[in-house]
Amino acid sequence: MKKILFLQIKGNSLGGVWFVNKSLGEEFIKRGYHTEVLAIRNNHPGIEIKDTPLMVTTINKIDAWEIVHRRDVLNTLKKSSFFKTLKAYFKDKRKLKEDYKQMKKFIKNYNPDYIIASHYQTLFGVPKEYLSKTIFVQHSSFDYLLMDKFNVQTLKKLNQRLFKLCWLCESAMNRAIEFGFTNNTYIYNPNKFTIKKRADVVKNKKIVVVTRIHPEKRIDLMIKMVAEVLTDFPTWTFEIYGTGTFNDKTKQILETSKQIFYRGITDNPLNVLLTSSLSLNTSIYEGFSLSIIEGFSCGLPVIAFDFGESAKEQIIDDYNGYVIPKDDINAFKNCLKEILTNPQKLEELSKNAKLFSKQFEVSKVVDKWEALFREMDKM
């Protein structure tokens, strides 16, 4: 039986990386692979990984993944907290060194045929002799990668020794090749939903977003734009699902609006999507948006600002949604108004979104991973 090992920085995180690895891992298990997840540390007290055949092992369950970086030290160079930060940096560095030592021991004992590394920090825990069996997946955009100099340096150093650098879309891969990286490929993220139903988008009259409420997602801007548009559409509503904080102006909108509602976390995202009509995305950047393809699987078209390389591979203008030029707020609002006033177009976009989503079904994505494994076996 062939063995697959996923590497993550966090063992009990319920973020996008985990759900991608969970979807892939469970499909690998169905196909007869022995599949496990190895994480460096935990980070969210009280969260347990449940309802999955995937075994998750965390090397260090005591220390949270709150790494002190060199840039944190440099940022406090002229402040009174400099020596405190410097001390924390060296303390954490010593602990990480031990964590990586334990990772290497685990990997050697497990002896995987294939390693899928989801964060560059995990590469320091891969024994040298296993790097040629390792595929590193860049889960964010190429632009985001370039913002982290240490990430770039790590990948440059290990590029020739890793089997593949795997990007989330063709555009990102092409940029990596132009940048000078070799051994590149790309595979889209899988959709965790496989469903035959399609939302009744004309009847539902509900806009939705299921997301992390984080500055990079710009949910405050999204709410402001929708609030301005919905004044002309009294029968429509907008629901926000996720965790995070809003600015004061957004809080005021949420408190006073009879059309916009913050629902917190949902334990049934599929039902939320099937009872909605349209999703929105205002992110500054995305590696590959899971929320968009999950919406597509339920027949929800999307309006999004251009969030980078994968935007136009996920969204085909006037087919399954619209990509709005970055930060063109008026264009975004006008597009939303046009869709809300044209139920025939909304229905057409919905049917196309459902059809488009089929390429992201986990079975089809895993077929591509198995092709990559066969290529590795020939080396």
Shape designation: globular
Low-confidence segments, given as residue ranges, are none
How much helicity do the residues have? 40-55%
* Strand order in the sheet with the most strands: 3-2-1-4-5-6-7
State the assembly state of the protein chains. Answer: single chain
CATH architecture identity of the largest domain: 3-Layer(aba) Sandwich
Name the average pLDDT: 91
Kindly give the count of domains.
2
By DSSP (H or I, 4+ residues per run), the number of helices equals: 15
Q: In total, how many beta strands?
A: 13
Strand percentage lies at 15-25%
CATH class of the largest domain: Alpha Beta
Considering the protein shown, what is the CATH homologous superfamily of the largest domain? Glycogen Phosphorylase B
Structural class comes to alpha/beta
Q: Rg to the nearest angstrom? A: 22 Å
Structural topology:
Layout: E1 3-10, H1 16-30, E2 34-42, E3 55-64, H2 70-75, H3 82-110, E4 114-117, E5 134-137, H4 142-147, H5 149-158, E6 164-167, H6 170-179, E7 184-186, H7 201-204, E8 206-210, H8 219-230, E9 237-241, H9 248-256, E10 260-264, H10 269-274, E11 278-281, H11 290-297, E12 302-305, H12 311-314, E13 321-324, H13 329-340, H14 343-356, H15 362-377
Parallel strand pairs: 1-2, 1-4, 2-3, 4-5, 5-6, 6-7, 8-9, 8-11, 9-10, 11-12, 12-13
